[in-house]
Design goal:
Heat Shock Protein 90, 2 domains, rod-shaped
Amino acid sequence: MATIMPAVPPATAATRPLERLMRNRDTAFWVLQLFGWTAYFIAQYVSALFYPEKLGPDKQAAYVHVLLVAAFTGCGVTSLLRYAFRRVRDRPLIQVVVITLVLIYAAALVWRVFINGAYVAFMPDEQMFTGASRIFANALISTYLLLSWSGLYYGFHFYDAAQRERVATLRAMALAQEAQVKMLRYQLNPHFLFNTLNAISTLILDHDNDTANLAVTRLSAFLRHTLDQDPMKKVTLRQELEALDLYLGIEKLRFGSRLRLERDVDAAALAALVPSLLLQPLVENALKYAIAPSETGGTLHVGARLIGQRLLLHVADDGPGLANPASFAQGRGVGLRNTRERLAVLYDGRARFSGVNTGPGLRTDIEIPAEFAS
């Protein structure tokens, strides 16, 4: 079974680790936490270097200790906020906003206790950071930082939820599309099977047991082939024509010399990919409406050629054609209608399916994008 060449290039080596990281939310959180608070430490230290009158060489080592306490405790406080936010983020919006703001200010107070304590321990000369009143005052500054952290947290959370919802929707659509294509494809088999079994029954009643046995053998081979093919996959045109030969081998037993076959297929087109069993319903339609009603039978012509980036297929007969060519849009029976719907599902508007009177006869044309196996 052929695999279609991807329309977009595979992920580069640089993007694969990021994709694996984002699939695991816990790992992604801790990586972003460590990165963010490391960046906080560096930014605070670098900004302090621009004020040497406040942070002389004798105070730099002590200030580094204060910043380490601030970064580690900030990482711990926000990690606790994450678990608290998990419990409230699915509540009504007004509750989420109110509870989040309360939790942020409470976390800011706790964080300032550690930061101010670090100043007392490592930089006791900075008296401005001592006292309960200073903790409440400085908590407002910390609140802004935690508010920004919370905004990023909720932003990542809702983005991740939207992405997961999108993936789930695409997966559901793919499953629905697969079920639809399989339903359309498998509707054809019982229709063909009914006609073939009737023909075999007639051969048995006529005591033509050898021909009946040959018909059963060919039918078995054809059904085995159809059951092995996944209607969501595509096969090469060569494989499709081999399957068509199995089908026509059965019909040849029914019609005998009344069925004349012609084929005009470009060699370059044989490697192109087509939906499995695409031509069989078109051939069956021609046999039903052109060959079977005629006492002398008729000629069935199958053709294929490549034109640029398009693959053109056609099945033609020399029967009576359509009394009203416009009626082809509604189809003649299950086969044409299913083929039209199947092409619409698989190619999403990039396929063309039409029929024209050729006087005599009808030619059914299919035009699809030219795809090749990788």
